[in-house]
Amino acid sequence: MDVIEVKGLAKRYPADFLGRKKTVAVDGITFAITSGETFGFLGPNGAGKTTTIRMLMSLIAPSAGTARIFGDPVPSRRARARVGFLPEAPYFYDYLTVTELCDLAGRIFGLDRATRRRRAEELIERVGLSHARKRPIRKYSKGMLQRAGIAQALMNDPDLVVLDEPTSGLDPVGRREVSDIIADLRRAKKTVFFSSHILADVEQICDRVAIVVGGKIRDIGTVAEVSRRDAAVATDVVLDVAAIADDVKEELRAGAGSHRHQGDDLVLTVEPGADTSALIARAIDAGAAVRRVTPKTPTLEDVFLRRVRESRVQREEKS
Questions:
Q1: 95-99 contacts: CB < 8 A, separation 24 or more?
Q2: So what's the pLDDT on residue 230?
Q3: What is the largest distance, in Å, between two alpha-carbon atoms of the chain?
Q4: Are strands 265-270 and 235-240 parallel, antiparallel or unpaired?
Q5: Top mean-pLDDT range of 148-157, 194-203, 265-274
Q6: What tens digit of pLDDT does each residue of 98-114 get?
Q7: Predicted local distance difference test score (pLDDT) of residue 305
Q8: Contact 209/42 with Cβ under 8 angstroms?
Q9: pTM for the whole structure
Q10: Run of H or E including 112
Q11: What is the pLDDT of residue 316?
Q12: pLDDT on residue 319
């Protein structure tokens, strides 16, 4: 049984008297997440990631489609009891300590006092906040606040952990700490569903990813599958240009999508669809030596950016 099953889920906002136009935030998406899977929900700001999560967490109602969690239609109190949730930009009572925040979360889930105390101690240590357990949350940094939010989300020992942009706004150290926590959850065989627009945070720890742009899923699969599916690849051409004229160098640079210099070598990145052979022939005719020609394997970032560009082109064609 899938832990999350989404079919044709959509959210539309009508035009209103304030002048806001009709908006399609989520446009009929379908996906499923299996038990123990770490699933990255990727997209630029405004892609529909947070709206999708809010529908799954019963914070807003969908306009169309269905969603199930642990086989129960959303909303379901029974399913929700097995879910830990960290919303985007969480707000917690400023005067609480992290211990009190975790205790409050445990009370909401009906845990007894002894269990709440034990779980809070374990989780505060796990997220690295033992040194700040007595400090009011209002004095926490953004990274510390995110870790406190993850601790409270895990108080009920959930089978499914849902995190909305858990690393957004964090410095590299904070992002690494949160990514390490997600990796720990993966090793513990928890099902993790989290959204992000920071690709480096998901490439190493996700079993599968979905790329959502403009409210639609544009690609889904493992990182390797998504990358292989994008057959169009760029090519790196490394030339020794020490013996050729400056105007020819400029011509070669202009014919490539991007370039960089490595000593006397010129590295040209030729974009998919460009005539790589003609560029190499021009370089040889001018007296350059070809050191290396290497097709570049598409990265998750390459695919992500291409899907965003494709979506923009489609919108422009419709307008």
A1: 95/136, 95/137, 95/138, 96/136, 96/137, 97/133, 97/134, 97/135, 97/136, 97/137, 98/124, 98/129, 98/132, 98/133, 98/135, 98/137, 98/148, 98/151, 99/124, 99/133, 99/134
A2: 64
A3: 80
A4: antiparallel
A5: 148-157
A6: 999 999 999 999 999 99
A7: 81
A8: yes
A9: 0.80
A10: none
A11: 66
A12: 62
How does pLDDT run across 186-195, given as a tens digit for each residue? Answer: 999 999 999 9
Both structure tokens of 77:
């109190």
In whole angstroms, give the CA distance from residue 182 to residue 196: 13
Q: In 3D, which of 39, 37, 31 has the Cα closest to residue 68?
A: 31
Q: Is 70 exceeded by the pLDDT of residue 280?
A: yes
Token reading at 307: 């899907």
CA distance 103 to 8: 38
Helix/strand number for the chain, H first, E second: 10, 14
Length of the chain, in residues: 319
Residue 122 tokens read as 């374990």
Q: Please give the average per-residue pLDDT across 159-164, as a whole number.
A: 96
CB neighbour list of residue 14: distance below 8 Å, 6 or more residues apart: 22
Taking a C-beta distance cutoff of 8 angstroms, is the pair 37, 207 a contact?
A: yes
> Among residues 299, 302, 303, which one has the least CA distance to residue 220?
303
